Amino acid sequence: MTMDLEFIYVGDPMCSWCWGFAPVIEQLDRRFAIPVRVVAGGLRPGDAAEPMSDRMREVLLHHWDQVADRTGQPFDRSGLDREDWTYDTMKADTALVTMRTLEPDHVLPFLTRLQRAFYAEATDLTDSAVYSDLAAEFGIDGDSFVDVLESEEMFRTTWHDFAEARSLGATGFPSLYLRDDSVPYTVTRGYYPYEPLEEAILGFLEERHPVEAAGLVCDGEIC
Predict the structure, then answer these.
(1) What percent of the chain has pLDDT over 70?
(2) 62, 142, 179, 195: which could join 132 in a potential S-S bond, CB 3.0 to 4.6 Å?
(3) Which long-range contacts link 63-66 to residues 24+ away (Cβ below 8 Å)?
């Protein structure tokens, strides 16, 4: 029997706990010979976007401090001091979908790059202009990337991602699923450290695919 396995990772470039989860999903990607499909979750897109206020800034800083304390991920908090700025994740979500469309092998490291840009470098991911240089880091012509990013097709595709996220039950991010044939099994909803996730996934594979399980685990950098 041919196995049809896939990790489905629902995250958002402007979700702080997803930034905290970045080393975990990268480690899982290296550990298992199972492809990872990234779905844009849509944290605060479009009409759900919120203008920055003093109250919102306090709430976000509290969450960022929690993520930093638990995961060790770096944060540059100066980005929250922008004047007349709206926390709109639509552009960043669409950039993620654009990379998946143009260069699907780059989508997971690109997600991490967007997260690092926003959280550790205080880059304004609501500004289309920043994506030219970010895409160029992955060998893609920056102007061409921005043209696709701003297309109606990418806008529609990104909203399809949001719908898929909701259909999976991913009401919070990060959310990780392991699809076995047509059934998506929940690995985690919300942040979880690497070791217990690896143990749970290994147990799942050994139970459902006892013969093939060993071949789905990478030894070091060789898979």
Answers:
(1) 97
(2) 142
(3) 63/16, 63/17, 64/16, 64/119
Give me the residue spans of the domains in the chain.
Answer: 5-216
Compute how many other C-beta atoms are within 10 angstroms of the C-beta atom of residue 221.
6
In this prediction, the residues of the chain whose per-residue pLDDT falls under 70 are 1-2, 220-223
Q: Are 36 and 96 in contact (CB under 8 A)?
A: no
For residue 123, give the amino acid letter. Answer: T
Write down the pLDDT at residue 221.
56
**Distance, CA of 215 to CA of 210 (rounded, Å):** 10
**What is the spatial distance between Cα 11 and Cα 18, in angstroms, rounded to a whole number?**
6
Are 170 and 41 spatial neighbours (Cβ–Cβ below 8 Å)? yes
